[in-house]
Amino acid sequence: MGFDYNTQRKRMVLPEYGRNIQKMVDYLKTIKDRDERNRAAATIIHIMGNLNPQLRDVEDFKHKLWDHLALIADCDLDIDSPYPPPEKSKLEEKPKRIPYPQGGIRFLHYGKNIEMMIDAVAKMPDGEEKDYLTYLIINQMKKLYITWNRPQVSDDIILSDLKFLSGGRLTIPEGMKIPETKELMAQNKKKQQANKYNKQQNKHSQKKKGFNRH
């Protein structure tokens, strides 16, 4: 099984929203039923709004979120948007940096974003879409637990935390398996190595530019 490195992943148009939102939008584009696609789009908009509370002070808050959704989807999204389809050339402005909330987080190692995603997905109707998003959340929870706590964690702990945070509304989809800890650790190690390599390359490039100017 190959590893999923950041350097090999699809570039995020609006990284401020995070990799999971990008995955949700990519999955949204594969939904064939138009009604389901519209419902999924509305759910993603709700999550995006929670991730960007500072946009609530912006005029036409909802309009801005739908424009951002279109941009993340590369303006290739066939849905019934409440607003006219935006022109790609006019969507260059990025949202402001997301202020990370410090209060009211029940599990610091998961963070507030995971809690908001769990709440939004838990409100969705049962089905393939909900199962897929739940699976993404579970994988991310385990990665975060390993990163901020210790390398050994049982799946029972992750599932127990998911049950607690969702108020019992979310469980692992039937037939889906949580990745092994050693697999996630290997991915994290490869990610760190790739980041270190990229930093070294950037540093070398900057030195080379400085040398060429003399």
What does it look like?
It contains seven helices and no strands. It has 214 residues and is mostly helical. The chain has a domain at 10-99. The longest helix has 33 residues, at 181-213.
Summarize this structure as a short list of keywords or feature phrases.
214 residues, mainly alpha, 7 helices, 55% helix
Q: Secondary-structure blueprint of this entry?
A:
Elements: H1 19-28, H2 34-51, H3 61-72, H4 111-122, H5 128-148, H6 155-165, H7 181-213
Condensed summary:
With 214 residues, the protein is an all-alpha fold.
Mean pLDDT: 76
Largest sheet: none
Q: What gap, in angstroms, lies between the N and C termini?
A: 48 Å
Q: Report the radius of gyration as a whole number of Å.
A: 19 Å
**Apparent shape:** globular
Flag low-confidence runs.
Answer: 1-8
The ordered H/E elements are HHHHHHH
Would you count the extended β strands for me? Answer: 0
Strand content: under 5%
Structural class: mainly alpha
Helical residues, percent? 40-55%
Number of helices: 7
Oligomeric state as shown: single chain
